[in-house]
Design goal:
The protein is of the alpha/beta class. Among the domains are: about 15-150, Spore Coat Polysaccharide Biosynthesis Protein SpsA, Chain A (Alpha-Beta Complex), CATH 3.90.550.10; about 300-420, no CATH class. The chain is about 50% helix and about 10% strand. The chain is built from 18 helices and 10 strands. The strands form 2 sheets. Strands 3-2-1-4-7-5-8-10 form an 8-stranded mixed beta sheet, with helices on both faces. α6 packs parallel to α17 and α13 packs across α14 (about 345-360). The protein is globular and about 65 Å long.
Length: about 425
């Protein structure tokens, strides 16, 4: 079945036809980001002028129906290139400001960016978040240059983060993605990345745009699809990503459900890929690495442990359907221990994640209930990590995450044994020869 192209407005179609072709394209998905998007547009403009002065360049703002004047801010944002010590911009930067169609969400915004990139035959593309306060012109170079000059298809971001920021990534997404697909991409769900025109076309041809991927889960889908399709992947150092960190115990259930659901669905789609991979290998990292100050993240350990123990009391029947008996037995040992001694070891946490992935795959219970029942377990693991790393720097805490990743890899045979038979689908892959 052929995937229909993303629809563009008549005005956007006219602009695209007038531009014809481009070498580089940078997209910004947005929804009510008038207070931050001007800075993002100016940083992109300076980055393109400074590092790609002779390239034909297009900036695409794919907007979800903002009511705060976001598109107008994009249109009116200009740069004094003289003040930026850029004497002359040899190539005009075209701006395309367009609403996106389809399901509400970041994925639908990306689909419009990908479609415009395909129509314009863009060679190298990047997408950055619209609420960034830490973006610099250098981001544009390190996201696009590996594609243009080094032949990479996908450039994942590499941020410096506080040790308690990004705990879903640190405890689930990074260890699981690395173990499954054998590539050590540290931030698989970063919102800022580069990609080739060939990969954009590959994304467009996948049957996901009317699914939940279009609402959420787009970042992990793109990373996983790039690796599984055989694309050349790398990372680029972006320094700190300044946003509003949240207490891991607060307002995370919806995000955890979305990300975990996407991860487990992708495991099913690409099971013939990951079941044959052993170990992992480093992924090339571009950019000058330096130390930056990161915003503090405050955590409430007592609240997380209380949430976990409430789960033990209330969700035991559900957890018995999700987890192997030995796994559940390990959790009940934590029922009465004092908070200071609370600890979920790496091997136990690894089996928890693997058991839940298997339960999701085997439809042991309604998937929505299963994913929601993961939250207290995740909070327990996060509390355990905080207690274990309180006296460590963020760099030292990274060593603990590395040990967790190694445990995931060592216990992969447990996952494969419990997963069951794997049926091989028709061969498919990314053609980047053009």
């Amino acid at each position: 079945m052929i995937v229909a192209p993303a629809s563009l407005t008549p005005q956007t179609e006219t602009v695209v036809q007038a531009i014809g072709e481009t070498e580089v394209l940078v997209g910004i998905p947005s929804y009510n980001n008038a207070d931050t998007i001007g800075h993002v547009v100016r940083a992109i403009s300076v980055g393109l002028a400074k590092y790609f002065p002779r390239a034909r360049a297009v900036l695409v703002n794919s907007d979800g129906g903002s009511s705060d004047g976001t598109p107008e801010v994009v249109a009116q944002s200009v740069v004094d290139y003289g003040a930026m010590l850029i004497s002359e911009r040899q190539s005009l930067l075209h701006k395309i400001i367009t609403p996106y169609h389809g399901l509400p969400g970041k994925g639908s915004a990306f689909r419009t960016v990908f479609e415009i990139a395909r129509r314009l035959k863009a060679k190298a593309c990047a997408v950055v978040d619209s609420d960034l306060r830490s973006i610099t012109p250098e981001w544009i170079e390190v996201l696009l240059r590996p594609v243009l000059d080094e032949g990479y298809d996908y450039v994942a971001p590499y941020y410096l983060r506080h040790k308690y920021d990004g705990t879903i990534t640190n405890s689930i997404v990074y260890p699981l993605t690395r173990c499954l697909y054998g590539q050590r991409i540290r931030q698989p769900i970063g919102g800022d990345f580069g990609f080739s025109g060939a990969l954009a076309a590959h994304y467009l041809d996948k049957h996901v745009w009317e699914s939940d991927v279009a609402r959420f889960g787009i970042d992990i889908w793109m990373t996983t699809e790039a690796i599984a399709s055989g694309a050349r992947v790398c990372q680029s150092f972006l320094g700190a990503k300044i946003h509003n960190p949240k207490d891991p115990a607060a307002d995370l259930s919806a995000m955890l459900v979305q990300v975990a659901g996407a991860l487990f669905s992708l495991m099913e789609e690409h099971q013939t890929v990951w079941t044959s991979i052993e170990g992992s290998k480093p992924v090339t990292l571009f950019g000058f690495q330096y130390q930056v100050g990161v915003e503090p993240v405050h955590v409430n350990i007592d609240a997380m442990i209380a949430n976990f123990r409430q789960g033990l009391a209330d969700l035991e029947p559900i957890w018995r359907q999700m987890l192997a008996a030995e796994t559940l037995e390990g959790l009940f040992l934590l029922k009465e221990c004092p908070p200071q001694a609370f600890h979920i070891p790496d091997d136990l946490w690894t089996r928890i994640v693997y058991d839940i992935a298997v339960a999701y795959h085997q439809y042991s219970m309604p998937r929505e209930h299963l994913l929601k029942a993961l939250t207290p377990l995740y909070l327990g693991r996060t509390a355990s990590f905080v207690l274990e790393t309180q006296g460590l720097t963020s760099i030292e805490a990274e060593g603990r995450i590395e040990l967790l990743c190694q445990t995931f890899e060592k216990q992969k045979s447990y996952l494969i044994q419990r997963w069951g038979p794997v049926e091989k689908p028709p061969a498919s892959g990314l053609n980047v020869s053009g």
